[in-house]
Amino acid sequence: MTQAYLHPIATSRLLLKAALTVAAMLLTFAAISYQTPVPPGSDKTVVDFHAFYVAGKLGQEGRANDSYNMAKMEVAQKDFTGVKVFMPWTYPPPFTLFVTALAALPLGWAYGLFVGLTLAFYITVLKRIAGDHLPGVIVAILPVILLTVMTGQNGFLTGALIGTFLLALQQRSSRAGIPLGLMVIKPHLAAAISLLALVERRWQAMFIAAGIVIAALALPTFIFGLSIWPAFLDGVRESSAYLAQGKYPLFRMTSIYATARSAGLSSDMAFAVHGASAAGVIALLFYGWWRKLPPQLLAASACAASLFVSPYNYDYDLCILGVGLAFVLPGLLERTRPIEQFALLALCWVGTGYGLFTAFAQEPEIAGVGRDPLSLMAPPLLLLIALVALAMRRAVRVRVSDIPATMATESTAPTTAPRAQASEPRQIELA
C-alpha cells in the first residue's frame, strides 16, 4: 500500500461543510437575483433554468408544443428574459410536464426549490456510496457542483438517479427499477445502467422501470394531447440539425462528437467516430461484467460509460462522474502515490470546470466550431478519458479478494443478499 496523502482531505468534515456552504450561498444569491426585477437597460443573466421556466410557462398556457419549435421558443424566451438566447428545448414530454408544474411558482422560488432539493438528493446518494470519503468526492467535483447550481440544470437529479439505481442493483433490490424508469427524462444517459440491469437479469426491476416509463409517457399525452409527440420529434430533428451546423457551444460539451468536431472533422465523420466509440465503450462495460469486475469498479465503469453514449452531453452531466468517483475513491487513495492523487484532483478540477471557465473567459455569443481557440481544445472529454484511464489502470489490478474493507463496507449500503456462486460464470453479485 502507498501512503494515502489525501486521506485527511478526503475525510475532512470541515472541508465538506465549507464546500457545501459555498454552494448554498451561491444558490441563495442566485434565487434572490433571479426573483429580483432587472431595471430596463441593465444586463440580465440568462441561464439554463430560464429555458426550463419558459417551457413550463408555455405548458401552462396550453402551448407546450411551441417549446419544441425553436422560432417560437426563441420569441418566448426573448419576451420573458428580454435577451435573445439560443436554448432549444429537446427534453421529452415527461420533463416538459414536470417543468410545467414547477412554473406555477415564481422564478426564484422555482429555481431554489428545484436546485436545492436535487442537490440535497445528490449529496445524500454520494454519502451512501462514499461514506466517510464524501468530502473528497465533493472537493474533486466542486467545479461542476458550482456550475450546476449557477445554471439551475438537472445534473444533480440525473446523477442521483443513476447512483440510486447502482446502490439498489448492488443490494439486488427490485427498487432499482424506480430510478431506472425515472431516467426517462434523459434516456440517453441511461443506456449503460440499462445494460447492467439486462445482463444481470433483474427482471423485476426492469418490469417496474417499464411501468414507470409507460406512466410517464401516458401522463403528458393525456394532459398535452397526442400532438406533443410529433412536436417533440420535430424538435429533436431540428436540434440535430443545429448540432451538425455547429451552433451549440462545443467548449461546454463532453462527447466524442464534440471533440471530433472541435478537431476539424465534418459532422458526418464526427458522428461516425462518436458512434464507433460509444459502441466500443458499451462493449467494454459488458466485457467488464463478463470478467466479473469488482462491484465498485463495475459501477464506476457504468457511470463513465453513461457519459460516452450520446453526442449531446454537457459539462453539467459530469455530476455522474462524481457518482463513479464515490465508488472507487477509497481504493484509489489506497493504491496511488501522492503525486498521482494530486494529478487526479487536478484532472477532475480542469475536466469539470473548463466549460465554466471558458464561458466566463469569452464572449457569450461565441459558440460552435472554429470560432474561438478555446473551443478548439475541447479538453473536458480528453481529461475525463485520462482520469478514467489512470484510475482504472491502478484499480483493475485489484482482485475481488483484495478489495479494501472500506470499499466493501463503507462505500456501499449493507446487504444481506448471498453472493453469486462460482458455478454461475456470467452472474456477478453487486454487493
Automatic annotation (TrEMBL):
Region (Disordered): 409-431
Membrane topology qualifier: Multi-pass membrane protein
Residue spans crossing the bilayer: 14-34, 95-125, 137-170, 176-199, 206-232, 271-290, 342-361, 373-392
Localization (cell): Cell membrane
Alphabetical UniProt keywords: Cell membrane, Membrane, Transferase, Transmembrane, Transmembrane helix
Family: Belongs to the glycosyltransferase 87 family.
Protein name from the UniProt record: DUF2029 domain-containing protein
Organism: Blastomonas fulva
